[in-house]
Amino acid sequence: MRFFSWSVLLLISCTSLLPAQQKSGRMFDGHPDLNGIWQAVNTANWNLQDHPAYAGPVWELGAIAAVPAGRGVVDGNEIPYKPEAAMKQKHNFDNRRTDDPEAKCYMPGIPRANYMPYPFQIVETGKDMLFVYEFATSNRLINMGKPIEAGSDTWMGTNNGRWEGDTLVIDVTGLNGLAWLDRAGNFLSDKAHVVERFTRKDADHLNYTATIEDPSLFTRPWTISMPLYRRIEKGAQLLEFKCTEFAEELLYGKYKKGASGGSK
How far apart are CA 134 and CA 47, in angstroms? Predict the structure, then answer.
């Protein structure tokens, strides 16, 4: 079993040197201590909206690949797509077996990274913050200083953070529009603007919301909300899930010599 690179582990371990883990649950600057390993416990990565159990795209695996029933995390249970965008979402769903960026081991984007069935770690130092995700070893740096503009579009976006009372607010722009929001084919464009809010409810729970604005796809802004749970088992840590090798056949199998459509 392999773990994260030493550089990431060293950065994470540095938090143990800070006066962060206090009984008060606050950092030395008075803000809530969000340090820890967190995970969503829901079915949002399969489908953001209310859904019954249904067959998955990999029918050969039977019930193993089936989608579990779940309650939605979208406020009002409606994603307000414009007509053409709704058609695109349906096309994505029909082709999710090969087109979902998760299947290709691409970085999950925001907000999907926070509710995939893998844990992530928040590293709060009193200055900038780091979010480290187990899936595809993705990460993002949260700028807690003067806001900066996105220099280019990326999978995880440009993240500017600020505190509103005890709530961490992260303003995300500069997303590349290639990530999906779930395995049901819900998606964003490169015009998306996401505002996340993390509020510590108690020692082991965060309330998480993300408001999504994308006038090219949606008729109005809409919001998802869910609790995040701290991993409290002894020795909890992020493990390494570099999934590229698992996606090679999907991505490049058609180019094999003798494969249909490949070189002869």
Answer: 20
CA distance 21 to 74: 33
β-pairing, 158-164 vs 139-143, is parallel
Look at domain 6-255 and name its CATH class: mainly beta
- What band does 4 get if pLDDT is binned at 50, 70 and 90? very low
pLDDT tens digits, one per residue of 222-252: 999 999 999 999 999 999 998 989 998 988 8
Domain ranges of the chain: 6-255
Instruction: Supply the pLDDT for residue 258.
Output: 65
pLDDT in tens, 122-177: 999 878 999 999 999 999 999 999 999 999 999 999 999 999 999 999 999 999 99
Q: How many Å apart are CA 264 and CA 261, to the nearest integer?
A: 9
What's the whole-number average pLDDT of the chain? 90
Contact 18/126 with Cβ under 8 angstroms?
A: yes
